[in-house]
Amino acid sequence: MLIDPAERKNAAVYLAAYENKLASDVAAGENRGKRLEHDFVVREWIGPIGFGEGLKIEEKRRLALLRGANAKNLGVAAFVQNRATSDVLQALMLPVCES
C-alpha cells in the first residue's frame, strides 16, 4: 500500500530477484588473475508496475528459482519509487520462498 496518496501519480513498484555468493575469474586488466566475489547480483528485473487508480497493487508475481542456484543464496528486493524525482518511497527485501 502506498503511504502518501499524493505520490500515486508518479509511483511505481519494481521487483528484483538477486543471487549472492557468485564469483568471476578476471582474465585481463588491473585485476587479472584475481577471483572477484559478488553479492546481490540482479538476475531478473520486473517493473515499473504502476498503481493505477488506487493506493494498493492487488497483483501477484511469480519469479522462478534460478536454474542451478542454491536457494540459500537467492532473494527478492521490492521497492516503490517516485519516477519523477527518483526518491525511493518504500523498500523490502526477503529471502527466497521455495513453495
Walkthrough of the structure:
This protein is mainly beta and 99 residues long. The protein has no helices and six strands. The chain has strands at residues 11-19, 22-25, 35-38, 41-50, 74-82, 88-95. The chain is elongated and about 55 Å long. The relative contact order is 0.30.
Sheet bearing the most strands, described?
4 strands, antiparallel
Q: Low-confidence spans: pLDDT under 50, at least 5 residues?
A: none
Please indicate the percent range of residues in DSSP E strands (runs of 2 or more): 35-45%
Shape: elongated
Structure characteristics:
99 residues, mainly beta, two-stranded antiparallel sheet, elongated
What's a quick, concise take on this entry?
By secondary structure, the protein is mainly β. It has strands spanning 11-19, 22-25, 35-38, 41-50, 74-82, 88-95.
What's the layout of helices and strands?
Layout: E1 11-19, E2 22-25, E3 35-38, E4 41-50, E5 74-82, E6 88-95
Antiparallel strand pairs: 1-4, 1-5, 2-3, 5-6
